[in-house]
Amino acid sequence: MSSITQAKAEAQKLIRRYNKLQAEAKTANTAEEAARKATEAEKVVSQISALQLAITKLQTKDKTYAAKKTVVDKKTPAQTGAKTTFGKSALEDRMSHLEEAQKRTRAQIDQLNRAKAQLTHLKQKAEKSAANVVEQGRANEEKLQQELAKLIKKKEAEHQNLRQELDAIRQQAKKEAELLKVQRDAARAMMEKQKLREKEQSYASLHHGSHKGLLMGVAIGIISSLILGGLLVSFFTSQNKVEPVKTNPTSKIPIMEKPQTTAKKVELQKQNIKVLSRFYDKLKQGENGPKMVKLSGGTFMMGSKIFTHSKERPQHKVTLRRFSISRYEITFDEYDLFAKATDNPLPEDMGWGRGKQPVINVNWNEATKYTKWLTEQTNHKYRLPSEREWEYAASAGIEARYWWGQNIGQNQANCGICGSKWDGLQTSPVGSFSPNPLDLYDTIGNVMEWTDSCVHHSYQGAPSTGQKWEGGNCSLRVVRGSSYITGENGLRITKRILDFSTGIRLDRLGFRVVRVD
């Protein structure tokens, strides 16, 4: 086989190899694979170009040889003899063969040039695709960084809220510890005073009729009166330095809380508040909503008469329209319906049980979400009570320390000193004690309750009408009522807690709801 034939065969093999690489590049799955195929095709084109150059050189050599043969063929027959005719015929065949081979090679060169152009286009496309992939990756990375920054900011805000809640809990615990200490000291002082009184009575009975004993008794009485009078003057003087005495407009004498007495029954002055109806709304998903009591509107005295309770003063008249309020504090049964229906987390029950236990460990935002869900389920407007609505309903129009009278008594509620089996230990099932005269349960003790009211630090400037006093610090919400650990000082209906942020959760804090008519 001649060199030209071998070169042509090798060129044909490389062309087939090139076509195969070109097809694979078009069907490549990734930009990287397409680029690799294009590179291999470029190498094949280089090899084909080298073979074309070799073929061209061989053809030039054959043409030179053919020219020499032509010179020989022009000699006379005598010079060449019988071989002249045979040699000329072979040379013509050889030239014709080479011309055909040259045409085929030219066609192959044209084909290779077209292939090279297509390869260049494919390579540019692959490079552009790779650039797009890089750009898309950069865009995704920037988007991910933005999402991470948002998530970090959200978590930092949650951390800040948790820290504020922890600080509030610590402050509350400190206050309650101080309150318990004051109560213990007061109880100890009362016991000592009672012992001293008993000793004096015993001494007086042993020396009854004795002139000496009489004089001593008179002297002791005078001294005791002087000491007591001095203490009272000192007390009122020190109190006046802290806060000016506020008086009733019709009297110049400060309004003081009447001392408790067991010898005479306290008369309960009821105001004209009526229960208009008792009802509950059906939820769209089939269950019953909270049991409600509809109250008539009216006017009541809000706040405390005692001038030392500065956050609950000045006592003032408030007139409200009628509204409905839940008979019981919202229970776990009622709240869990909402949480499961809306994919909200179930609050912790501290191991005390769920069911009819008042729901605890819910913050103001979660309690508000529950009222919005009730609104959607019943087509009636529900919300948390304002603090004036809460006090109106909880007091039942009775001007006394507790709705049942001036003394705490025994087993009237679940608090720190109420004499129930749950005192100081845990919450009790709602409705475990008698309701107030408006048929509302646990308005004293069990759990404190969220209200819808923003914080004003006193009643100075409070409006005399309207369901809610607008304005105030709405990052804090007023909490009313008392809990299963509250001592005597915190059980009064007028008590206000003003330092709870909307995100705080406590095991002694729940809520009840109002329906706006």
The fraction of residues in strands falls at 5-15%
Mean pLDDT: 79
Rg, Å, rounded: 51 Å
Order of neighbouring strands in the sheet with most strands: 1-2-5-11-6
Amino- and carboxy-terminal Cα gap:
110 Å
Number of domains: 2
3D structure, described in words:
Residues 80-87, 203-215 and 222-269 have low confidence and may be disordered. The chain folds into 2 domains: 3-75 and 84-153, no CATH class; 275-515, Alpha-Beta Complex (paralog of FGE (formylglycine-generating enzyme)), CATH 3.90.1580.10. The chain is 51% helix and 9% strand. The protein has helices spanning 3-26, 31-73, 77-80, 83-206, 211-242, 332-342, 364-378, 387-395; strands spanning 275-279, 292-295, 298-302, 316-320, 323-326, 382-383, 448-455, 473-480, 496-497, 509-510, 514-515. The strands form 3 sheets. It has a 5-stranded antiparallel sheet with strand order 1-2-5-11-6. Strands 9-8-7-10 form a 4-stranded mixed sheet. Strands 3-4 form a two-stranded antiparallel ribbon. The chain is of the alpha+beta class and 517 residues long. It starts with a helix and ends with a strand. It contains 8 helices and 11 strands.
Short description:
The protein is of the alpha+beta class and about 525 residues long. It has eight helices and eleven strands. Helices cover about 50% and strands about 10% of the residues.
Secondary structure elements and pairings:
Layout: H1 3-26, H2 31-73, H3 77-80, H4 83-206, H5 211-242, E1 275-279, E2 292-295, E3 298-302, E4 316-320, E5 323-326, H6 332-342, H7 364-378, E6 382-383, H8 387-395, E7 448-455, E8 473-480, E9 496-497, E10 509-510, E11 514-515
Parallel strand pairs: 7-10
Antiparallel strand pairs: 1-2, 2-5, 3-4, 5-11, 6-11, 7-8, 8-9
